[in-house]
Amino acid sequence: MERGLRKQRTRQAISDVATRLFISRGFEEVTIAQVAEAAQVAKMTVTNHFPRKEDLVFDVHESFVASLAEVRGRPLVAAFRRAWRAGLERRDALLGFSGPEFARMIVESPTLLARLRELHEEREKALAASLLDELDSDTARAVAAQIGSVARLLFDEVLRRIADGEPEAEVAAAVGRAGERMFDLLESGLGSI
């Protein structure tokens, strides 16, 4: 247990140091070697914890990818709306809420934006796989694509507004209105699935 805790602390310390470096210098300008030096660990330690440089930024990527597949309840769209509203109320990072410097770092980096698109795709695939117990493959993929698209659009809007320096309360209010309209459209199309 102590070893696992130590490993988690090291991982978090590396991620925190990397984030500070990326924000101050720009993601593309910082190397893994510089992160290792600043974190006072070996380069191999960094890559053992974070196989991709982008993972230093998206250190919660596993939770992000699993987040849609973990939503439970029926009707399906109503369950996603409830989960999304709860995340919006918490200003959840998995919905795009972060500090403005962090958000700007992402939106200003083509590499990070590309990785974020990949993570959205992985999240959609995980959702489709989780629906296979109840739906055929084509329907599961179609439903996951629609729900995943709404989640991506709302995430991108939160991230952009935060990067522009809007206060979280204003972002939540504006995105909340947009989200309700999007979920209404989903419900009209997906109905009682």
TrEMBL record:
HTH tetR-type domain sequence ranges: 8-68
Checking Pfam families in the record gives: TetR_N (PF00440)
Q: Which residues bind DNA?
A: 31-50
Record's signal peptide: none
For this protein, the record's Gene3D superfamilies field holds: Homeodomain-like, Tetracycline Repressor, domain 2
What domain of life is recorded for the organism? Answer: Bacteria
Q: What is this protein called?
A: TetR/AcrR family transcriptional regulator
Q: Which InterPro entries match?
A: Homeodomain-like_sf (IPR009057), HTH-type_TetR-like_transc_reg (IPR050109), HTH_TetR (IPR001647)
Protein keywords: DNA-binding, Transcription, Transcription regulation
